[in-house]
From TrEMBL, chains A, B:
InterPro entries reported for this sequence: 4NH2But_aminotransferase_euk, Aminotrans_3, PyrdxlP-dep_Trfase, PyrdxlP-dep_Trfase_major, PyrdxlP-dep_Trfase_small
Assembly and oligomerization: Homodimer; disulfide-linked.
GO CC, alphabetical: mitochondrion
Phylogenetic classification of the source organism: Eukaryota, Metazoa, Chordata, Craniata, Vertebrata
Name of the protein: 4-aminobutyrate aminotransferase, mitochondrial
Keyword Transferase belongs to the record: yes
Obligatory cofactor(s): pyridoxal 5'-phosphate
Family: Belongs to the class-III pyridoxal-phosphate-dependent aminotransferase family.
Single Gene Ontology BP annotation: gamma-aminobutyric acid catabolic process
Organism: Poecilia reticulata
Catalytic activity of the protein: (S)-3-amino-2-methylpropanoate + 2-oxoglutarate = 2-methyl-3-oxopropanoate + L-glutamate; 4-aminobutanoate + 2-oxoglutarate = succinate semialdehyde + L-glutamate
Amino acid sequence: YDYDGPLMKTTVPGPRSQELTKQLGDIQNVGAVNFFCNYEDSRGNYLVDVDGNRMLDIYTQISSIPIGYNHPALLKLMTNPNNLSTFVNRPALGILPPENFPDKITESLLSIAPSGMTRVQTMACGSCSNENAFKSIFIWYRNKERGHNTPSEEELTSCMTNQAPGCPDLSILSFMGGFHGRTLGCLATTHSKVIHKLDMPSFDWPVAPFPRLKYPLEEFSQENAQEEARCLEEVEDLIVKWRQKGKPVAGIIIEPIQAEGGDNHASPDFFRNLRNISRKHGCAFHVDEIQTGGGCTGKFWAHEHWGMDDPAEIVSFSKKLLTGGYYQKEELQADKPYRIFNTWMGDPSKNLFLVEVLNVIRRENLLEEVTRSGKALLNGLYELQAQYPGLLSRARGLGTFCAIDVRDAATRDRLLLQARDKGMLLGGCGDQSIRFRPALVFKEYHVHIFLNIFNNVLAQN
Amino acid sequence: YDYDGPLMKTTVPGPRSQELTKQLGDIQNVGAVNFFCNYEDSRGNYLVDVDGNRMLDIYTQISSIPIGYNHPALLKLMTNPNNLSTFVNRPALGILPPENFPDKITESLLSIAPSGMTRVQTMACGSCSNENAFKSIFIWYRNKERGHNTPSEEELTSCMTNQAPGCPDLSILSFMGGFHGRTLGCLATTHSKVIHKLDMPSFDWPVAPFPRLKYPLEEFSQENAQEEARCLEEVEDLIVKWRQKGKPVAGIIIEPIQAEGGDNHASPDFFRNLRNISRKHGCAFHVDEIQTGGGCTGKFWAHEHWGMDDPAEIVSFSKKLLTGGYYQKEELQADKPYRIFNTWMGDPSKNLFLVEVLNVIRRENLLEEVTRSGKALLNGLYELQAQYPGLLSRARGLGTFCAIDVRDAATRDRLLLQARDKGMLLGGCGDQSIRFRPALVFKEYHVHIFLNIFNNVLAQN
Ligand code: FES
């Protein structure tokens, strides 16, 4: 059901997209709009725009389309009359769940639960997933501190006006370059771009350095190990310092690969050591798999590459999983109802789609495909950076979750636009990186279509 | 398409609900689960559970079902093949909107825009609506303070580690008893129940008293005016005090009727005066219509009852509007792209439903129906409280957005369960109130069904 290649009719954005952007500009800030899409005509790996341009999509709606556009399995689900009421009647899941909810969750989210985790809480997006995961961590941490879960009278009254001890000065440790969302709680752990943070009140929470490694990792293992050790030491220092400040670190949040921040990798060893530090200091370890989860690294969760039985206390997800949410260890489960709660608590119509997505991933062995395409992509990037050493460097990746650095931001931005006009939709990340975020149905031959066209673009620069 | 009355087969939760609750309990905290539902068989004002009980639903999924269950207009929309791709391909709206997005927004959200507001930003739930509204307010306020929108070098660097001046100590003033969501930013303005706030780090933001009025309002206008004046004075004091503390109030957030906090009303005069205070002190006025919006007060927005041309800088919505979001005045629009941004920025499939909901509201004159049913409901409540003065008091309401107080919390909770076993699904709010949150298709004869049964329940107590 895929098209056989890109097909360009205009430069992008074409005249119709420009017209619509102008129209929308009367209603919203449209500074971020790339172009308008024809989602009906989009298929598989190809996104079609309103001017009839058909582009190979290697960005997939900021990494959120799992199995391509208009996948027949998802369209079929829509035509099943038994599913209609799930779309039409959105329940308040926390109080009045539909009959099939436990089964659907078991069939979908629990079937891919990270090692050691038996409990999952659905949410509606990445931000509420992380915000509520933080809240679970704070509840757990305070109950540990108290030794019981009966708050004092002073806690009960002070919390109503945002004051300690009811609203304690707890913190979440995060990493420079990390991205965990943009609501104010999440934003206090996000440190990827100024534009996200400027002018926003925040919490005084510790920010550790994330290792800045040399690629390919195998070639620089000793230097990289030193850099990682430096960062780990800093993490411990910060935990101690913030405890002394009276703002103890209740949890550590980290991405298995820093995505928005520029596709920064670290070794499995780094994460195993960090996990141990979190244990040693009694902080919850929260792995944010919102962008890395769902199969794009060749395993369903990126943290599986660390090879651990007990990888974390909490793993959050969204994007390619279509629903947001987080897994947690039994002990992190909030002690009382209504502490982790909101009106919708997710959306069962997204769970319906997720069941089908997982079926397709299994039926079509998509994790193996991703591993295969990812190898071809990374090798292709290695060749291109050898061929254009003044332009490209630091090719890196796991599965198809790849990136490469460009000489500078301006050149990167120009390359992205030139590639787009030739039918390749790519995204940037960090200061000067290009990130690859294809769907799981991106095959080896798509890699070759990309490499050919990208080579042409580079040759012009 | 409605049923003709409740029909009860078991007490609630029945055996099947209990079984499913047990099953779900292995995966999640189920302390808040009331019972499991059969959404296929639910229709109009009636919610059917998995044990075949059919209840008149006066709570509607925490006030989030606008025109009843399985409304034919919404089901029809699902069978239109042109709509399928909107459900199957969720776009990153901020960068790659679908072709019909400007038209759909104009046809739906803009057609009901509050007075003076031409711009609307969709979001996915009430919390991200308020969080992003706060962010718009902070950007606007800081640019006013600066006199331009070019941040200093120090701001650019300090914001990356959550420190001032880049992350300034700005505050949002909120009201005791208010509810604006549960992500950490929203939660700092929420003050309705301990269980929401306890153990959560928060911001030192000012909390003003909300008027505690006597009902019926007409009978106590003088005392109530005094109480409102007291609260307004306190608001001004807090604004001055927080400015002196170095945490200036950038915005004031308020619900037109405090919903979760116990259905607390204030007079149009109170809100007009508060609006003036916000203008005088240069704070943005943010009206949270997440629960009050959508027609349940007899006008589309509750703030329309204030009769103002320029009611606010920002009005946020969610729940019955199916999509989240907020309207804003032109000057509140963020100055640069990507400052107000996330992966999905709403969900076009919810906009599709909203267009139909608005059509139904207009076609069936539902705002008039609400006014009519609301009058019958409030009069009925007045009669009941006259009849049971030891049990009931403080009946109040606007449209069908009504509430009544019960002697104490334990009696309130018992009444709710007894009513449920007789086929009336109601919700509590505040410490001892019962709230009425029917759909807009709740007609006068539904009011009478309710009053009859509720009378029977009261007679037993
Ligand atoms: S915060 Fe996640 S959907 Fe609103």
